[in-house]
Amino acid sequence: MSPALQVERAARAEDLDGFLIALKQKEPLAAGAECWVARRGAAVVAGLATYRFDDLHDAPGLSGVLGHYGARDAEGGATLLRAAAAALKADGAVRVLGPMNGSTWARYRLALPPETPDERNEPPYLSEPVNPPEYLEHFAAAGFGPTVEYESRIQRDLSIVDPKAEAAALKVAAAGIRIEALALDRFEESLAEIHALSLESFGDNPFYRPIARDAFVAMYTPLRPIIDPELVELARDASGALVGFSFAFLDPLGAAAGTPGRVVLKTLVTKPSLRGVGLGSLLMDRTRSLAVAKGHRAVIHALMHLSNASKRMSERTTTRFRRYALFEWMSP
Questions:
Q1: Number of neighbouring beta carbons within 10 Å of residue 295
Q2: In the chain, which end has fewer C-beta atoms inside a 10 angstrom radius, N or C?
């Protein structure tokens, strides 16, 4: 007979960290994290961290967030999720969301089951949410349901040009906007500009909250060794101000899994006042063109909200790669 299950609130961070390291799911805890674990006897069988925010975009009142979730035991995982969600509600949370590792700038969402052969045959790419499929069952058993959905898409035939790219290039040029590659000798200065434009452009994203510049730079600096600066393009207006960018890289995980040559377009941003000019379409197609010039075989458009303009642009040349969802606790 297995030992009884026990839920421990305000657990030691090292207990949660050690468990997640063993599962190869460790990501640094954000400020304000409260650690939880579920144990059978002395053994940790599930863990998570909770956060409380009153400044998530379009989410009035207090929001409870569950992140850093891992489990080896379905009952332990569902029980822990339910207990933590109930505690956040009891503390005054209007809603409980997860999984989200502290903010939408960190890892969040669960990957949903593949529905097509293409989705089943493509290995994960660097920065993609990855989770055991059974985690979806844990969240469902605890009373969670999808609240926001996303997808990644892939263009395998890179000879297909976005039909709106040529007109977009003319409009962008007429607006006095020039596009240049990232200069690695100005990497940190460019990250500071990218951070400022991202804060302006991401403000309407579901459950968004700002991030400090130092934290943003720390998040992107580890990517520097794999960055091809020609795949990171910066759009500047006549005054030299950054008004858009595309951040793409050659995926190392695909190469390791036997599918080399995948370029990941991780982030595509245009200044809100310039939406409609066609800069996003142009930057997206330029990533395709650069991938062709460099001999790569596919471009992945990463993690787009289903209602985003970037998804509508992507659909002109791509097929779906994977689906994801952020969940909300539906129980009373």
A1: 7
A2: N
